[in-house]
Design brief:
The protein is α+β, with helices and mostly antiparallel strands and 162 residues long. The chain has a single domain (2-117), classed as Gcn5-related N-acetyltransferase (GNAT) (Aminopeptidase, 3-Layer(aba) Sandwich), CATH 3.40.630. It contains five helices and seven strands. The chain has helices at residues 11-30, 32-42, 45-52, 98-108, 125-133; strands at residues 2-5, 57-63, 68-76, 81-89, 115-120, 137-142, 154-160. It has a seven-stranded mixed sheet with strand order 1-2-3-4-5-7-6, with helices on both faces. The longest helix has 20 residues, at 11-30. The chain is globular. The two termini are 28 Å apart. The mean pLDDT is 94.
Length: 162
């Protein structure tokens, strides 16, 4: 498996993978209907296309030639900081090193930044543990994970890269 830049041809597959992953992760937290609503808004092909054109950003996938098992989207938000907006791994591939490979790639995308930040649902224990094991520390909280007005509380975590 290798990490590569996402292409427009990948967007249907990525959207489907995100829907599967979100239902697996968040149905027990938010309920199926809310997850379906969020996924339709945040993970549609059109929403993913917008990420591909964002300045100072990278959109990558983990691909083994047969399927895309994970994706990540990161952008540089100021001179010192990049923001990991998304890092998701297909449920069947979790625990196989896909997330770690994606994380290593996004940390290297902006060599001049000194830290990387992310927001994660506090009830998503698996993700919180993953980021903690990979050097991220809690830096605060937000009442609006992902987008302003989402109403989804999250933990803000940061990692000093250099």
């Amino acid at each position: 498996m290798w990490i590569r830049t996402a292409s427009y041809d990948d967007l249907e597959t990525i959207s489907s993978m995100l829907t599967e992953t979100w239902h697996d992760t968040y149905d027990s937290i938010y309920g199926k209907e809310k997850v379906a609503e969020l996924t339709a808004a945040w993970h549609s092909v059109d929403a993913l296309k917008q990420r591909m054109t964002k300045p100072r950003s990278e959109f990558v996938v983990c691909d083994d030639g047969a399927e895309i098992s994970g994706m990540a989207f990161v952008s540089q938000i100021d001179a010192d900081t990049s923001m990991l907006h998304q890092l998701y791994v297909r449920p069947a591939a979790q625990g196989a090193g896909v997330g770690k490979k994606l994380l290593i790639e996004v940390e290297a995308c902006f060599p001049d930044v000194r830290k990387i930040r992310l927001e994660v649902e506090e009830a998503n224990d698996r993700a919180v543990d993953f980021y903690g094991r990979n050097g991220f520390k809690k830096a605060g909280t937000t009442p609006d994970c992902g987008v302003k007005g989402s109403g989804i509380p999250a933990v803000i975590m940061e990692k000093v890269i250099w």
